[in-house]
Amino acid sequence: MRKLLKLVTGRLFWTALIFVAEFILLAYLVFRASYNKIFFFAFASLSIIMQFVVFTRSEKPAYKMVWMFLIGIFPIFGGVLYLIMANKKLGYFSRRKMRRFLRTMPDQSFFGESADELLYSAAPEYRRLSSYIKHETGLSAWGSTACTYFPYSEAFFLDVIEEIRHAERFIFIEYFIIGEGKWWSRILSELEKKVKEGVDVRLIYDDLGSINAVPHRYDRTLRSRGIKAVAFNRVKLHINPRLNFRDHRKIFDIDGNICYTGGLNLADEYANDEIRFGYWKDNAVKFRGAAVWNFTYLFLEMWNGVAGGSDDLRLYVPTAAAENDGFIQPFGDNPLDDGSIAEDIYIQLISSAKRYVWITTPYLVPDDRMMTALRIAAESGVDVRIIMPRTPDKKTVFEVSRSNYIPLLESGVRIYEFLPGFMHAKTFIADDEIAIVGTTNIDYRSFYLHFELAVMFCLSSVVGAVREDFIHTFDLSEEVSADMVRAKGPAQRILRYFLRLFSPAF
To answer: Which of 58, 440, 441, 460 lies 20 to 30 A from 334 at CA?
Structure first.
């Protein structure tokens, strides 16, 4: 009863209710107006124009195909639907600020030489992957970086709090979710102490991601305590095509010398102090040294876009020396371009694997390109394994994910479900040599609509730590057969087919 009361009194519930009501009203008005010949012609023309726009835009083929299909089967409402749900343009002023920031970015070698050429020499088989990241994002691979892998969340929170206490210059935080509770209270208390010491503390949180986790206009509360806070893409109570844009990144950057990222958000459920979907399995990585620069740059790029500013980047470079732990290349992805850097990197990693590629993801909604890459790898004798949650956080997405199991299983992909609860980590590993840990899910929203980030590790101790984490997690998971997930009756099959039509919305 308490959970139900919390649900119906939460901001998310009423916001969603208003959006649904507005959507239904809009659909009704469109279809009602279509009985008039003039309006019918106008809406039908809009759908034709939108199909032309989709066809000519430089989007990934799968994304274009889904939207052309949806507009085609809803010839009256399809054009309006596309404008509402598929807009991929950030606000004009934010885009202008980001472009200005990019133009003022100095050569990143101003604080030292990157490890790009060393990586190409030491691991030539991964030169193509690393070069692609550098070409698309401008962010290099680095050595001189020490790494610590956290396979579970509890140790991560304790480590973050300890490192905050040593901050001297600045603390940059960018998270999809911050949530009031035990851990955020402890972190906030330490941040307030640092503000009083003169440390520059800045925070970006996603307004939709945190909508039920913190009070409305929580950024004002934080600013009253001396923290420079911004809510990313504030949710407005009207149908807003920019609602799709979310900041799904996780960055906790201390003095430009230490940074954390991974799947974890800053809320109690991630540390299993609040149980919602069974045991929450996630991961994080701590960095110390040169590679932290990439995170600092990504944060300042976002800060400039949403809050403005003209920071001198030379003031934020790493100053702490660190032992070398292989090659580390953090990179970002965003919906402002016409591609999906994260998906391209995943596909390259899958396609280049020689012995095995193992994956954890909470959602499995791949487009045709990724589905094909997974199937070809498995059919070529590569050991392809995917670990999914047994207990989902979103049942509709879980149904879509399970509908994708069958063709993968038939191709030889082995799929496991994590029995203790929810698998939230987004991790790839291949051939004991390379791994990717980050924030990007295997779904349309992460690939095409979210601001994301990830880190490529090559010949690093993190690769071994990730492998050990996988082996342990396999022991806690059940391998799935086709019979286990086959739709139980026509109703479930129809539901899955229907939901897959709207997979870009998931």
So the answer is: 460
The torsion angles phi and psi of 20, rounded to 5 degrees, stand at -65, -45
- The CA distance from 280 to 270, in Å, is 6
Domain-embedded: residue 463? yes
Length of the chain: 506
pLDDT band at 100, cuts 50/70/90? low
Cα–Cα nearest to 255, from 216, 295, 309: 295
How far apart are alpha carbons 257 and 253 in whole angstroms? 8
Residue 23 near residue 81, CB atoms below 8 Å = no
Please check whether residue 99 lies inside any domain of the structure: yes
The answer to whether residue 297 is domain-embedded is yes
For 6, the 3-state DSSP assignment is helix
Q: Are residues 30 and 72 in the same domain?
A: yes
Q: What are the phi and psi torsion angles at 160 (to 5°)?
A: -60, -50
DSSP at 354:
S
* Residues 467 and 376 occupy one common structural domain: yes
Q: What is d(CA 440, CA 342) in angstroms, rounded to the nearest whole number?
A: 7
More confident residue, 47 or 87: 47
Report if residue 332 sits inside a domain: no
327 touches 123 (CB < 8 A) = yes
> What is the extent of the structural domain holding 54?
2-85
Tally of CB atoms within 10 A around 166: 11
Identify the domain boundary among 327, 356, 390. 327
The three-point CA angle 58-60-61 to 5° equals 105
- What CA–CA distance (Å, rounded) separates 308 from 140? 25
The DSSP code sequence of 48-89 is HHHHHHHHHS---HHHHHHHHHHHHHSTTTHHHHHHHH----
End-to-end CA distance of the chain: 28
What backbone torsions phi and psi does residue 122 show, to the nearest 5 degrees? -80, -30
**Mean pLDDT for the stretch of residues 266-274:** 92
For tokens 């809803």, what's the residue? Answer: 74
Q: Compute the distance between CA of residue 248 and CA of residue 263 in angstroms, rounded to an integer.
A: 9
Residues 360 and 427: beta-carbon distance below 8 Å: yes
- The pLDDT confidence band at residue 240, using thresholds 50, 70 and 90, is low
Least Cα distance to 474 among 440, 404, 427, 411 occurs for 427
What pLDDT band is residue 146 in, cutting at 50, 70 and 90? very high
What does the alpha-carbon distance between residue 474 and residue 478 come to, in Å, rounded to a whole number? 8
User: How many domains would you assign to the chain?
Assistant: 3
**245 shares a domain with 366:** no
Same domain, 41 and 160: no
